[in-house]
Write a structure and sequence with these properties.
Strand 1 (about 75) and strand 2 form a beta hairpin. Helix 1 packs across helix 7 (about 125-154) and helix 3 packs across helix 4 (about 80-100). Helix content is about 70%, strand content about 5%. It contains seven helices and four strands, in the order αααββαααββα. The protein is elongated. A two-stranded antiparallel sheet has the order 1-2. The chain starts with 9 loop residues before the first helix and ends with a helix. By secondary structure, the chain is mainly alpha-helical.
């Protein structure tokens, strides 16, 4: 069995959140990330997702002395890993929305989308959502490093 201090707990998620938000911030407000996301294809977006998974898994289980088979799992996937990926993506996405990054960097896309809808002063557009998800994935490449490092070190 895993020792008490190695079991996944809420404190581990809190550490992941701190690390994830710490490294996500600069990438959310960098225009270059949004320019890259605009030009990325869906396949490139999915490849970025796979990179995030690989970095997260490698950092948690290959760079540290953890055995994923000895951890609590969710549908066969270690809960620590599920938490890491969720934190990595949601920290970027939440900051992007909080800072209005899509509204700032993608306003022209929303204005050109005939299906865009205004809700509570925000323009919702599927085209903007697609680019935002790709930008989130780019930011998550760095966020996962911060989240996994914080989880591993503390």
């Amino acid at each position: 069995m895993v020792g008490k201090n190695r079991r996944f707990a809420l404190a581990d998620t809190a550490q992941q959140v701190v690390g994830g938000f710490l490294l996500a911030g600069p990438f959310v407000v960098t225009e270059e990330v949004w320019v890259l996301a605009r030009s990325m294809s869906t396949v490139q977006g999915l490849l970025t997702f796979v990179i995030v998974l690989a970095i997260g898994y490698g950092t948690l289980y290959k760079a540290d002395n953890r055995d994923p088979d000895r951890e609590v799992d969710i549908a066969g996937v270690p809960a620590r890993f599920v938490s890491l990926i969720l934190v990595s993506y949601f920290s970027v996405f939440i900051l992007a929305l909080a800072f209005d990054a899509p509204g700032t960097f993608l306003a022209d896309i929303a204005q050109g989308d005939p299906g865009a809808v205004d809700v509570l002063g925000m323009t919702l557009s599927t085209a903007v959502l697609g680019v935002t998800l790709k930008a989130t994935s780019v930011g998550a490449v760095f966020s996962v490093i911060g989240a996994a490092t914080a989880d591993t070190l503390f």
